[in-house]
Design brief:
The chain has a seven-stranded parallel β-sheet with strand order 3-2-1-4-5-6-7, sandwiched between helices. Strands 10-9-8-11-12-13 form a six-stranded parallel β-sheet. The chain has 395 residues and is an alpha/beta fold. The model has no long low-confidence stretch (mean pLDDT 92).
Length: 395
């Protein structure tokens, strides 16, 4: 059974949100042509919400009003500077936009619209922040705990939604189980952010990042290590790669640069960059999809980013030096993940070097068989979501 931190801000806000969210559902002054977007718990401008927001602004019906809601004043100012409509969630204009919205789009949950989301009564579209194999949310409960969770969710849930997007039948099954969803409300559209993977200029994406665009780019994107694994868990892994003579040798042979892009929750990694080994902070990259889009090889572990990257049909390597400890301390993973992992798995630096030499695309091909439905191959995913929302909500 999953333990619950009842002292977290989201848990402390639960009683008031049960009242406030349901009162908002009685509010009659909503407009289906006012769409609000939020992402990453209200802190960043990115992910599926960003991609769809930009698509709607460029291609929308002139009567649709798109508004970005954020807790971050810098994000709001940046978007206003670009001519977009954006407000802080706690500002009067932000709260009014939330109360008038007919449709709301999120990536991480209702928390994207603030600690006290006022979007109850709007049609909520869960774009989410990736498909996956991890046992999350309701997938971590069972028996009486799961039944109690489902009852509580009837009053308020941070992952409440009316429409859920997916990328395949396999992904839809995972989503239905993790969030206890009606499959009739899950639609295979693809993820809007994946529209950003293709047609990129390597020089333009890497500009100002100190990365030589003439070198082969090996991108390392590991997932977050929980505190149970130690605050320096990721520091230790990256240091091992940094000091590996065999990795340094193969990078020179391949004329490649090894770029480490940590998870946003990972503590800062203290290392001095060199020409073929660079650690970039989360804030240094405006768009993760674009960085993946110009990478020649992806090295990852238990992160779902490889599902996105697989669409490019390029080599993928799983580097898991701490697998036993990670699996003991973190979320459970479905067996299908391990089937894919075995195709290209390294547990130490020398094993990683061997796989970088092989450059197999088998992981990408097998991943796409699971997560890329034939009906959406070659389509614009943002357009698919846009048309699905308009059709299902009769706009």
């Amino acid at each position: 059974m999953m333990s619950i931190d009842w002292k977290s801000p989201k848990k402390l806000a639960l009683p008031l949100n049960i009242l406030l969210f349901n009162l908002c559902r009685l509010w009659p002054f909503r407009n289906k042509r006012i769409w609000v977007f939020g992402a990453r718990e209200g802190h960043q401008y990115e992910d599926n919400s960003r991609a769809l927001f930009e698509y709607v602004l460029q291609n929308k019906d002139a009567q649709i009003r798109s508004i970005w809601l954020t807790r971050n004043a810098e994000v709001a100012d940046m978007l206003k500077g670009r001519g977009c409509e954006a407000y802080k969630t706690r500002s009067l204009k932000g709260m009014w936009a939330a109360l008038r919205a007919g449709i709301s789009f999120y990536t991480n949950g209702l928390i994207d619209f603030g600690l006290f989301p006022l979007v109850g009564g709007s049609k909520v579209v869960a774009l989410w922040h990736g498909m996956g194999f991890k046992r999350i949310y309701n997938g971590n409960y069972s028996g009486k705990s799961l039944r109690a969770k489902k009852i509580l969710d009837c009053f308020f849930s941070w992952t409440y939604r009316n429409i859920t997007i997916s990328t395949s039948a396999y992904a839809s099954k995972w989503l239905a189980e993790m969030f206890t969803l009606n499959k009739d409300k899950i639609f295979v559209t693809g993820q809007p952010r994946n529209d950003m993977l293709k047609g990129l200029s390597k020089a333009a994406v890497l500009k100002g990042m100190g990365i030589d665009c003439n070198k082969k780019l090996i991108l390392y994107m590991p997932t977050y290590r929980q505190q149970a694994l130690g605050n320096d868990a990721m520091q230790s892994i990256v240091e091992g790669l940094y000091n590996s003579k065999s990795l340094n040798r193969v990078l020179k042979e391949m004329n490649a640069v090894f770029v480490v892009k940590p998870h946003p929750l990972t503590p800062h990694i203290q290392l001095k960059n060199r020409d073929n080994f660079i650690v970039i902070d989360y804030g240094a990259v405006e768009n993760n999809q674009e960085l993946m889009g110009v990478a020649d090889v992806l090295v990852t572990d238990y992160s779902s980013c490889f599902i996105d990257y697989a669409l490019l049909e390029r080599p993928i390597v799983f580097y898991v030096p701490d697998e036993e400890l990670f699996l003991k301390k973190s979320e459970k993973l479905d067996d299908t993940f391990f089937d894919l992992e075995q195709l290209s798995k390294a547990v130490d630096e020398d094993g990683l070097v061997d796989l970088l030499h092989q450059s197999s695309c088998e992981v990408a091909q097998r991943t796409n068989e699971l997560f890329e439905d034939n009906s959406i191959k070659g389509t614009c995913y943002s357009e698919n979501v846009f048309n699905t929302v308009k059709r299902e909500l009769r706009i």
